[in-house]
Amino acid sequence: MTRPVRVRFAPSPTGPLHIGGVRTALYNFLFARQRGGKMILRIEDTDSQRFVPGAEEYILESLKWCGIEIDEGVGVGGPHAPYRQSERREIYLKYATQLVEAGWAYYAFDSAEELDALRKQYEAEGKTFAYNYEVRSELATSLKLPKEEVEERIARGDQWVIRFKMPENEMVKMHDLIRGDVEMNTSTLDDKVLYKSADQLPTYHLANIVDDHLMEISHVIRGEEWLPSLPLHYLLYRAFGWTDSQPEFAHLPLLLKPTGGGKLSKRDGDKMGFPVFPLFWKSPSTGETAHGYREDGYFPEAFINMLALLGWNPGTEQELFTMPELIEAFSLDRVSKSGARFQPDKAKWFNAQYLHRKSAEELAVIYQPILKAHGIEATDEVAGKAASIMKERATLIGDLWELTSFFFVAPTEYEEKQAKKYWKGDNPRILKEVREVLASIDDFSLENTEKIVHDWIQEKGYGMGQVMNTLRLALVGAGKGPGMYDVTAFIGKEECLKRIDHLFATLTPAE
Ligand code: GLU
Question: I want to staple 206 with a disulfide (CB 3.0 to 4.6 A). Which of 122, 194, 268, 290 is the partner?
């Protein structure tokens, strides 16, 4: 019988969720949905020193914005609740002591100062200190000290940790769904701390394995930075006697800098002007802020589409995928082993594709809040129409205002270059005549106005470009904008005449 698919996204609330983390969540979600499985959200907050207030809320909000739905976990509940590790603290000690009793782990009483001194001493001798099979028998551990002394130290409240007793010189053979077979010699690994008496909390390794087991996780899909921990995790499953039900593992490639070398960092984003976080973030301790895709005007669908293709490819030319399409097409087989280079321009490209495909109704919903922020009251129809006319030139949602503001606000100043070029010679006189023509039109629809003005210009033998650009100066105040008749039809006759009059009243022609 095949096992039900249960995957988990298990972030630590140590700061804003990086886009690499969002991609991990996304791949877990796609995998779960495709296989009819469950997506679990577990918050791994056992490292109290690195806990950042607000980070968990940020994670939940980010997943929601992205459309990554959680079936079980923090914020949702479920049969294995609680899903926040700090609320499961009683569970772990039992498992840690079970390993000690079985000889897979031991108590260690070294203080931080003692370990520091050892490290320094090794350094002075040009060596690196590792807490491992070579040194463990010399240190203050339950392997060396008599049983009574160990019990006495624990009873009197000395601080201790439980460390995993990494076997010496054993080849651990592992399998990764993306990388295939991997092996590692245990002599290269140290004795990781599993539990600390100081805060009565497990470390990541113990809590993670125990919870994956208890929560019946079938597949662990996580970032490549956890691959070096895989041998320990395999050995922990063995030590607990859980090998038969151990999950399958898939380690996702790193997200690399746009320049290729190295892991994508916040600094790269700051330097090159793109966000590395899904949402805006303000650090509660330093007040430092970071850009987010949401606030920078990206659509969640575009953001997700872009992330899906960073490290996975569908094996076809298709680039645009809806979430249901991603769920259908995704496979771990097509996730690459090598790092995926992040391309900020590609993120913009995806956003533009989604923006250009929005209907006037959808655009109205997106654009109304921006209009309101600029003090503009408009009907949905008008808002949607303005955005539709200009959407092809926009990349981000925020571009819309810059591109369409003249539909709503008459120019009060005139672009110097444009004014110099057109507000001179015969043009003011001709614009007066244009004003008369416009004033005489009853049906001010785009087509009708265009036909009448166009025919009139030809009849008069005026230069089309000169007339149109002078009119543009009056109506838009600059050289930008859509076709002139889009503007006339949008703002209407009265407003056109008013804007023309304003140009005459405020700007003296150059000659
Ligand atoms: N808490 C770990 C992290 O923050 C989870 C790693 C894992 O998925 O095993 O990435």
Answer: 194
pLDDT tens string 208-264: 999 999 999 999 999 999 999 999 999 999 999 999 999 999 999 999 999 988 999
Residue 83 DSSP class: -
Best residue among 40, 176, 204, 232 to mutate for probing ligand 1's pocket (most ligand atoms within 8 Å of CB) is: 204
In 155-307, the DSSP E strands lie at: 161-164, 171-176, 180-185, 193-196, 201-202, 219-223, 248-252, 255-256, 281-282, 289-290
Describe the chain by its helix, strand, coil percentages, rounded to 5: 50, 10, 40
Helix runs in 69-169, H state only: 89-101, 112-124, 147-155
Half-sphere exposure of 323 (CA within 13 A, CB side): 15
Q: Which of 239, 232, 241 shows the shortest CA–CA distance to 186?
A: 232
Ligand 1 atom nearest residue 220's Cα:
8
Q: How far is the CA of 12 from the centre of ligand 1 (A)?
A: 7
- Given the DSSP bridges, would you call strands 289-290 and 281-282 parallel, antiparallel or unpaired? antiparallel
Q: Is 11 in the pocket of ligand 1 (CB under 6 A)?
A: yes
Q: What is the spatial distance between Cα 401 and Cα 377, in angstroms, rounded to a whole number? A: 14
What pLDDT, in 10s, does the model give residues 417-429?
999 999 999 999 9
Q: Is 307 in contact with 23 (CB distance < 8 Å)?
A: yes
Most ligand 1 atoms within 8 A of CB, residue of 44, 176, 263 to mutate? 44
* Cis-peptide into 82, omega within 30 deg: yes
226 in ligand 1 pocket by Cβ < 6 Å? yes
Ligand 1 touching residue 354 (CB < 6 A): no
Give distance in angstroms: CA of 425 to centre of ligand 1: 71
Q: Distance (Å, rounded) from C-alpha 451 to C-alpha 446?
A: 9
Residue 208 Cβ < 6 Å to ligand 1:
yes
The position carrying tokens 């295939």 is: 180
CA separation for the pair 172, 167 (Å, rounded): 10
Locate 190 and state its tokens: 């140290």
CA of 119 to the centre of ligand 1 (A): 28
Cβ of residue 222 lying under 6 Å from some atom of ligand 1: yes
451 is catalytic: no
Q: Average pLDDT by consecutive 10-residue portion of the chain (511 residues)?
A: 92 96 98 98 93 96 98 97 96 98 98 95 96 95 96 97 98 98 97 96 97 98 97 98 97 94 89 94 94 96 98 97 98 96 96 98 97 97 98 96 97 96 97 98 97 97 96 97 96 98 95 66
CA of 11 to the centre of ligand 1 (A): 5
The tokens for 226 are: 């956890």
Rg (CA), the chain: 32
Is the Cβ–Cβ distance between 209 and 231 less than 8 Å?
Answer: no
Torsion of CA 425, 431, 436, 439, to 10 degrees: -170
